[in-house]
Amino acid sequence: MKKLILCVSLLGFCNMTNAACLDLYNHQLTTLQGEKINLCDYQDKPILVVNTASKCGFTPQFDALETLYSKYKNNGLLVIGFPSNDFKQELADDKQIGDFCKLTYAVKFPMIKKSAVSGPNANAFYKQLAAKTGLAPSWNFFKYVILPGGQEVYAFSSDVKPDAAEILNKIKPKLK
């Protein structure tokens, strides 16, 4: 009987933990290297989300993204890249993308496996971001800033650089 109560108690605790994760963050993502990221672990932190492509005129923004990540990751910022071929400028597979990002831009922030970020085939997370802001990516390096708790989500066009004042003014007050 004690074992049954313990099992039921543990199951209840697990359900309470999952219930505490807000819907926007309820995503398990896999990086280009196969590591798992549970966005629920980041719901109390600012997140900069960007759809990337290796062969785009905005690709040099990887430098600013990596600089932001390196500078503020210990203060709670998560920068997360989503490679996509929606605009026909991404490499063929995840290994090529990972090698390109590492060798060309020394990217250390998490890069998620290639997926669609716009239209009917967009991944579930991007569909939620588009619904929350009313804006879906119209090109590569479109950015979303998610503030802690997910109630405030802001969209930024590709030509807004990752270290632009309008992005930093949202993120910096939420850093620890």
Characterization of the model:
With 176 residues, the chain is an alpha+beta fold. The protein has one domain: Glutaredoxin. Helices cover 34% and strands 15% of the residues. The strands form two sheets. A four-stranded mixed sheet has the order 4-3-5-6, sandwiched between helices. Helix 2 links the parallel strand 3 and strand 4. The longest helix has 18 residues.
CA-CA gap between termini = 46 Å
Spatial ordering of strands, largest sheet: 4-3-5-6
Helix content range of the residues, please?
25-40%
What is the name of the CATH topology? Glutaredoxin
CATH architecture: 3-Layer(aba) Sandwich
Amount of beta strand: 5-15%
**CATH C-level label:** Alpha Beta
State the shape.
globular
List key phrases describing it:
about 180 residues; alpha+beta; Glutaredoxin; four-stranded mixed beta sheet; two-stranded antiparallel ribbon; 5 helices
Summarize this structure briefly:
The chain is of the alpha+beta class and 176 residues long. The protein is built from five helices and six strands.
Question: Secondary structure elements and their pairing?
Answer:
Layout: H1 2-19, E1 28-30, E2 36-38, E3 47-52, H2 61-72, E4 78-83, H3 94-105, H4 124-133, E5 143-146, E6 153-156, H5 165-171
